[in-house]
Write a structure and sequence with these properties.
The complex is a heterodimer of chains A (359) and B (206).
Chain A (H helix, E strand, L loop, with lengths): L17 E6 L4 E8 L4 E8 L1 H4 L7 H23 L8 E7 L3 H18 L3 E5 H12 L7 E6 L4 E8 L2 E7 L5 H11 L6 H9 L24 H13 L4 H24 L8 E4 L6 H13 L4 E2 L3 H4 L4 H12 L31
Parallel strand pairs in A: 1-4, 4-5, 6-9, 9-10
Antiparallel strand pairs in A: 1-2, 2-3, 6-7, 7-8
Helix pairs in contact in A: 2-3, 4-11, 5-6, 5-7, 5-8, 6-8, 7-8, 8-9
Chain B lengths: L1 E5 L4 E8 L2 E9 L4 H13 L7 E5 L5 H18 L3 E4 L1 H12 L5 E7 L5 E7 L4 E2 L4 E3 L1 H4 L6 E3 L3 H8 L3 E3 L37
Parallel strand pairs in B: 1-4, 4-5, 6-10, 10-11
Antiparallel strand pairs in B: 1-2, 2-3, 6-7, 7-8, 7-9
Helix pairs in contact in B: 1-2
The chains are: A alpha/beta (359), B alpha/beta (206).
Chain lengths: 359, 206
Amino acid sequence: MGGCPNAMRGGREAGMTLILGLESSCDETAAALVTGDRRILAHRLAGQEAAHRPYGGVVPEIAARAHVEVLTPLVEQALADAGVTLADVDAIAATAGPGLIGGVMVGLVTGKALALAAGKPLVAVNHLEGHALSPRLADPALAFPYLLLLVSGGHCQLLFVEGVGRYRRLATTIDDAAGEAFDKTAKLLGLGFPGGPAVEAAARAGNPRAVPLPRPLVGTAEPHFSFAGLKSAVLRARDAGVHSAGDIAASFQQAVVDCLLDRTRRALAVADGATALVVAGGVAANGAVRAALADLAHAHGLPFVAPPGWLCTDNAAMIAWAGAERLAAGLTDGLDVAARARWPLDPTAEKARGAGVKA
Amino acid sequence: MELVIDTATAACSVALIDDGRIVAERHEVVGRGHAERLVPQIAELTEATPACTLVRVDCGPGSFTGVRVGLAAARALGLAWGVPVRGYTSTALLAVSAFAREDALDAVCVALIGGHGEMFVQRFARSPFAAITPLASLLPADAALSPEPLVIGSAAAALVAARGWGEAREDLPRAADARLLPPPWGDLPPSPIYGRAPDAKLPGAA
């Protein structure tokens, strides 16, 4: 919990919109206040890592229990940090899906009740749109359209972002998300939870070429991602008993980087008019992933945009920002809006082989 | 003026209470639609009403999601209005409702559908209003040892079937009946009462 590098105190100028954002779709509970001119007045986050760590992954029921206890205190703290009251807020933005439905409902109903009591509009935000637009919060120069690699514990997609609410899905995972593969690898290697930072740390001491691991779907004509086979190969490598955890971690991370690069390169070829290559989502906090994507963007003569690490993992500032963008576009929602466990950003996208329909 | 929210069961129920008197109420059996229906219901109720000075909410046990929807709304309204939020148990509410309706009733057993084939059971006495047993999650065979002829709540029929005698009534909690709760039954902290620990098992645990 606590401050962020660009947090500011003391309110805002007259006429500038102020959005309260709420996030509770997975294992983070968060509240943030963001202005229409990209100032993050407050952001508060209560992670549940300690509660989930013994299980080696996020347990939906435990996540759902935690959100309801901490969300309103977080909102109070965020308002105090920013030196504002609900009356100063122009809209309430809350994640309405996709995600663990029990948590989503807590945040959405909290947002509805705050909107009702304060007499403010509600903006029901797609969590993925929060990630997709977060680079524009971090970088005012980032213009539509751009190619986005959204890579997190729940999602792995390539999206052509044409504008607010306008997304074309170019690729998705047909089995696990990349972040899920990191978590499962960390669990297999006994590195702890959350897996992303643990694998990255272990990989520093390892040789990325020591363990031969597959690169599922790399080089194929189909545009999608696949990580389930990679996870199984990690299990076999571990059970072979001849490799160090560091070597397996480093080789796994390299395999993920190779998959992400190959698929992103393929998408760049069809992303006509893209002004930048953008990465968002929790896996974008991985240094090796960032470095490789920066090189790829450079090779294509495109700027590479990656929000700071805290804005890549789940947070409420990105939800507030997506709320600001939607409010500016005149998009608000009724108090009867439903929470959605599954909510694709591009509902017209063809269903990928083997993939679920959650996003 | 007090706003009462009860979404712990299949009912989505809200009421405005002033000095023990029902000013307005909405009571709908929605099943699972609380997250969509609750806040519009509150909007209908509070539209033409002077400010509320207290929010009271059913903390459970009951529907895992419903309990948290009600608490999320109650806590948020408390924050936005700057008023206290208090809670009560679904079992106590059902018991006071039953006593209010039936003068001859001296004791009642409340049984709600729990998890894993168990039921949440609590027994109450009328005068003075008191819990005879603490809230417990019981298998039907153990729940069947309850001696009260009348059993109420979502698991009432199952308990009476397991016991082989008595009367079962599937009452749903009604927010307006919170006015009947004697202190301190309506003054719990606004936190969920799940009635069971999480189902998740630690890796390697039995």
